[in-house]
Amino acid sequence: MVAEKHKKKTNNNTNENSRLTDFIQRNLRQICVVIAICDFCHAIFFVVNATIFLVTRFNIYSSLAVVGTVFWVLIVVLLIVGLWKRRPILVKIWLIFSIIGFIVDIGFSIWIIVSAITVDWVHLKEFFIIFVGIFIESICIYLVYKYYLGMDPYQQKTTKKKRDEKACKGTIKVYYSNLLRYKNICMQYINDL
């Protein structure tokens, strides 16, 4: 009796996990687009903040912040275009940039914890929010990476190769017809001699 209840409970959990996995698999592209749009809004928010900081306090750090956030926006635009046009190289660029940012975030978080003079509830709440953000960031990177693995990196080369083969077949037909015409002209010339 207890074994049957445990078996039903395990079967139910497996069923729910498979439904979630199936949902993610079916809607992975849409999920990645939502991630890209959220990342774009996040980047625009930081561009605005960095620009305000640049206007209020002009120095080298504020200038670097504006340049960095504009670069971030461009990388996110590459992700959006890569998802829209199914260009794996553009998605790969975003993945590399995001993984570097992820590592920097973890290092920065460790530095904040180590350099904290006191640990109180306010700091613990800030640390918790930072780690939740890092966790969400890692999930987003994983989902985009999973979509990237499903993209066909040879798609563009394949379509170009097919297009070249069609053009080549047409060229061969023209070449062959010209060759036959020249052969007939040569045969006629030889017969005339």
TrEMBL record:
<dbReference type="Pfam" id="PF15860">
    <property type="entry name" value="DUF4728"/>
</dbReference>
<keyword id="KW-1133">Transmembrane helix</keyword>
<feature type="transmembrane region" description="Helical">
    <location>
        <begin position="60"/>
        <end position="81"/>
    </location>
</feature>
<feature type="transmembrane region" description="Helical">
    <location>
        <begin position="126"/>
        <end position="145"/>
    </location>
</feature>
<keyword id="KW-0812">Transmembrane</keyword>
<protein>
    <submittedName>
        <fullName>Uncharacterized protein LOC111599773 isoform X1</fullName>
    </submittedName>
</protein>
<feature type="transmembrane region" description="Helical">
    <location>
        <begin position="93"/>
        <end position="114"/>
    </location>
</feature>
<dbReference type="InterPro" id="IPR031720">
    <property type="entry name" value="DUF4728"/>
</dbReference>
<keyword id="KW-0472">Membrane</keyword>
<feature type="transmembrane region" description="Helical">
    <location>
        <begin position="31"/>
        <end position="54"/>
    </location>
</feature>
